[in-house]
Amino acid sequence: MTADLATLTAAVEAGNRAVAAELTAAALEDGQDPKAILDAMTAAMDQVGRRFQDGEIFVPEMLISARAMKAATAILEPALVAAGVTPEFTAVVGTVEGDLHDIGKNLVGMMWKGAGFEVVDLGVNVPAARFVEAARDRNAQIVGLSALLTTTMPNMRAVVEAVRAAGLPAKVVIGGAPTTPEFAAQIGADGQAADAGAAVDLARRLLAG
Ligand code: B1M
Prior knowledge:
2 domains; 5 strands; alpha/beta; binds CO-5-methoxybenzimidazolylcobamide; Methyltransferase, Methionine Synthase (B12-binding Domains), Chain A, domain 1; Rossmann fold; 57% helix
């Protein structure tokens, strides 16, 4: 198989897991730069995020692309580590205390990984103190909170307050069906994203200063 990076981008975007993995292995065998291989996959996920935001594709397609990227990055990871390519930013993500919904949160985590962030996924039902502990331990630049229930939304405020009280510099991003930009402003979060593609744009915008 020819290790053409444009074909790799297309395979990840189409969610063709086997081809994406094979092309990644072939590109490494050809001696191509691991960072260039990663950039080819990230370009695919950028496009997936845009198409999702534009309503051209839906959750299943996005999940399939994210899984193709996951399979390919697993092959690439040892080469990235050996080449000293480390993610520029770390994001801690979780569903807030009392809330067990994780599909949207997982998508956001996958898309952030696709954007080249290191993602520390704390899972569901995460208390404020756990977000603070992980953000501090991992020197995270972003803390991402998900909530799907109107009854658990107030727990987002507790996390924002705990992150600020701990003096952490991380930007706090919230999301989930019942959240709004107005609610984010009310609780002192740095922003709200309506979907996983928007979460990538928002994080990049906040990290750019
Ligand atoms: Co639940 N549930 N559920 N549920 N559930 C909803 C949310 C509900 C709207 C259904 C309804 O009544 N129509 C309703 C909430 C009503 C409300 O509060 N306004 C509800 C309820 C009431 C409940 C229970 C209380 C039911 C009960 O037990 N009586 C219970 C609560 C349990 C708990 O959490 N403590 C419950 C349980 C469950 C299941 C366990 C059965 C299951 C969750 C399984 C799982 O997640 N592993 C479940 C499901 C599947 C749903 C629905 C049907 C689907 C949610 C979903 O995964 N959507 C949901 C109804 C619905 O949304 N149509 C419902 C797909 C997902 C991709 O979208 O999560 O919105 P979403 O994520 C999007 C965006 O919101 C955004 O990006 C994602 C991708 O674009 N986003 C972020 C999400 N997090 C983000 C974070 C960001 C940025 C963007 O930055 C960090």
